[in-house]
Design goal:
415 residues; mainly beta; Neuraminidase; Immunoglobulin-like; 4-stranded antiparallel beta sheet; 2 helices; globular
């Protein structure tokens, strides 16, 4: 129901199962109902409405004020006027970064050039947060009156209590690697985060036990990891039940990347899109527990998909079929050479290439038609002046012009 819709921003009304998406030409938002498929124009310009968690209400900024709209009653009223600094009293400030607390007790927002502020809906009081403002996805609620921030050269995550102003440290890493992204699970009191390591991982911090474990390593836990110029995990988002966490594996300089889902109950991570087929991802959200929408920033489209069989599982299952090859590399680690062996059940066109960890092509070992049967070749790192490190040997098999098999083998050169 959401496929290649031209847009550069979106938000979801989960109560009505509607998607608000911004027209790339007019900057006005269009509303699409995912049940009836009805499409309507709206009066929302530039920024979409931000929806509450427990009731069918939303807020947006308009005419110098913050408006609350009750979608069930179709009524609106001014919730508050943004606070001003003494130096700019009476000026007009654009407010952005709205974020309802889990039970809708507070509305977090950022007046332009001011620090984040929480507006308490029950008594219309403002609670200024004595911490610097960051991008929207670097501030989260950990409960209904506590927010968390990334802090101190991006190496700490702190918890700020609105009522007392007390600050606690959740995560405190060395200066490098820095924390690149994170998301707090309010139901289970756990924090998932990643760092700007060369080989990104997902870390799970359990607040109750004060312990940290690695729950996903892209090099070892994905049979065909994305290859590109730098990798990072971005835009982490829990589903409504806090059971599954969706996130991007972003290629920092190339188009592409993939969408992964970490399943807490299974303690496993699955890839749901193919790296080479997708544009650069920018935002994602859950429509419901089975469907994800994301923004493709390369083509300025929004797309959606249902969580059926993960691509990573399909690729793993396909690799076990006798459709293509059975590839082995020995020794591994190696120095300076290793032998690649594979078996094909029928004649085909094959390529075997070597890539470094950033996705740069190092060598083309095979690029031709091959007969059925057993094959082997030697890869000597000295022929390519390679230094110690991690490399990937990629095999692709084509039949009748279509790819029927692909696999990446991680190898380690140890000099």
């Amino acid at each position: 129901h959401i496929n290649h819709i031209p847009a550069d921003k979106f938000n979801i009304d989960k109560f009505a199962q509607e998607v608000y998406y911004r027209d790339v030409f007019t900057y006005y938002f269009i509303k699409k109902n995912l049940i009836s498929q009805k499409i309507d124009t709206t009066s929302y310009f530039y920024s979409p409405p931000v929806f509450a968690n427990k009731s069918h209400k939303s807020v947006h900024f308009s005419g110098g004020s913050v408006i609350l709209h009750d979608h069930d009653k179709d009524t609106s009223y001014v919730l508050f006027y943004p606070p001003y600094t003494n130096e700019n009293k009476g000026g007009t400030y654009i407010t952005y970064g709205f974020l309802f607390s889990p039970n809708d007790s507070f509305l977090l927002f950022q007046p332009a050039e001011l620090k984040y502020t929480a507006f308490k809906l029950s008594d219309s009081t403002f609670h200024k947060i004595n911490m610097p403002a960051f991008e929207d996805y670097f501030i989260h609620w950990s409960n209904d009156s506590t927010v968390i921030f990334r802090w101190d050269n991006q190496s700490k995550i702190l918890e700020y209590y609105l009522y007392s102003g007390k600050i606690d440290t959740l995560i405190n890493l060395p200066e490098y690697p820095r924390i690149s992204n994170y998301s707090y699970n309010k139901t289970k009191n756990i924090l998932i985060y990643s760092t700007d390591e060369l080989y990104p991982k997902l870390y799970l911090y359990n607040k109750k036990t004060d312990s940290t474990t690695i729950v996903f390593n892209i090099l070892t836990d994905d049979p065909n990891p994305c290859l590109g110029s730098g990798l990072a995990f971005k835009y982490m988002k829990w589903d409504s039940e806090d059971d599954d966490l969706a996130f991007f594996c972003t290629l920092l300089t190339n188009n592409g990347g993939a969408i992964y889902v970490y399943k807490l109950k299974e303690n496993k991570t699955y890839r749901y899109t193919r790296c080479e087929y997708e544009g650069k991802k920018y935002e994602l959200d859950w429509i419901n527990r089975d469907t994800i929408i994301y923004l493709d920033q390369t083509y300025f489209n929004i797309d959606g998909f249902a969580l059926l069989t993960p691509v990573s599982v399909e690729e793993k299952n396909n690799s076990k079929l006798d459709e293509g090859a059975e590839i082995g590399v020995y020794p591994n680690p190696f120095n300076p050479s290793t032998t690649i062996k594979w078996h094909s059940s029928s004649s085909n066109y094959s390529t075997i290439k070597v890539f470094d960890i950033l996705g740069k092509e190092i060598a083309v070992l095979i690029d031709r038609d091959l007969s059925a049967g057993q094959h082997q070749l030697e890869f000597n790192a000295e022929d390519y002046w390679l230094s110690s490190g991690v490399y990937f040997i990629n095999i692709k098999i084509m039949r009748s012009g279509s790819e029927v098999y692909t696999e990446n083998k991680k190898v380690i050169l140890m000099k």
